[in-house]
Amino acid sequence: MQNLSMDDLQALISSNPLTRNFLRKELVTTYDEFVEVLYDEMDIVISSLEENPQHYYDDNEDKITHSIVSMLKMRNYSATQGTTSGGNVDITVKCINPLWSWIGEAKIYASLKNLQEGFLQLTTRYRNASPVFASRGLLAYTKRPDPAAHLKEWDEHVTKLSLPDYTRSECTRRPGMAFITTHKDSSSGKPVKIRHNAIALHHLPEDRSGREAAKYKKRRTEKAD
Amino acid sequence: MKMTTPENKSDAHLILTELWAERPEAEAGRAIVDFLALHTDAVHISFSQLFAVADEVRIKDRAVVLNIINYFTGADLNLLTTGFEYIEDETVQPLDIEQVRAAKFNNINPVTGDEDSDIGKKIFMFFKPSQLAKTALVVD
Lengths: 225, 140
Fold this sequence. Notes:
- The complex is a heterodimer of chains A (225) and B (140).
- Chain A contains 8 helices and 9 strands.
- With 225 residues, chain A is an alpha+beta fold.
- In chain A, strands 1-4-5-6-9-8-7 form a 7-stranded mixed β-sheet.
- The radius of gyration of chain B is 17 Å and the shape is elongated.
- Helix content of chain B is 46%, strand content 15%.
- Chain B folds into 2 domains: 9-78; 83-125, no CATH class.
- Chain B has helices at residues 9-20, 24-38, 47-56, 62-73, 97-106, 131-136; strands at 80-88, 91-95, 123-129.
- At the A-B interface, α1, α2, α4 and β1 of A face α3, α4, α5 and β3 of B.
């Protein structure tokens, strides 16, 4: 059997969602590159959730997070749930370099108030492996329809928080479904970069079988938790 | 789900089963773990050797084997350390990561320093057992 050149390998992995970033990960030399590749991987994971919201609609926060963590592990990250680092961080992702980590707070986005609690945990309680390399993420599992509108509401809310040295930009990877902010961390004094993600998990089919299924009838009469 | 640092070969098998469950990656992974346990002093393991190891347990799908190789090179269960080498005719030269980056992203030939549009055909990735593999997999 012949061995694989870099070109051969690239051809084999380019259409495989689990390994398409294999070579890129091997060639990462900076924290920003680590985060860039992680977000590419994370977006594949998020899209697999959004593609099948029926599998996750009835799941609680921990169960959805567990699915994300498993999918990140399969992509070769050390991904853990509930790791202690200032508090029990929902998602901690690490690579081979022990100084580089990404931390994420996950919430079922039922209201601005509960997302605000998650944001405060993420920004005032949890810690990255190093304050110098501090990218974080807020994952808003949105079971209500129109997640982009709810994210916009959150976006406006965050702007009003008057965080020190605050900047905000669009996320070009998931336009309308994510945005990026930076602000000065109250503890370290260093900038913290946060990607705020709405994850679309609303599922209420209106076709005949959807109209007649008992679980959807029940869902129509109650608000998503 | 806990942090995955195996203390022995059985732990490594268990970690694979917990994550990959019934997927063929679990079986391919166990075969590669057993192979690494017998070759902890190896200094050069090629893709084709790992494909052959998986083939012995009837895993013929290269995508499956690549999935598990990718997994073993990462931080969750880091059993493989990667290296790169330049091979052309009689020339075989180890490369550092900056040389590979220059080749991958700018088509720079690491031996000549010139632009080389075929450089991707001359660079090969290979593997060695990681430090974790050397310490954990020798214990049954």
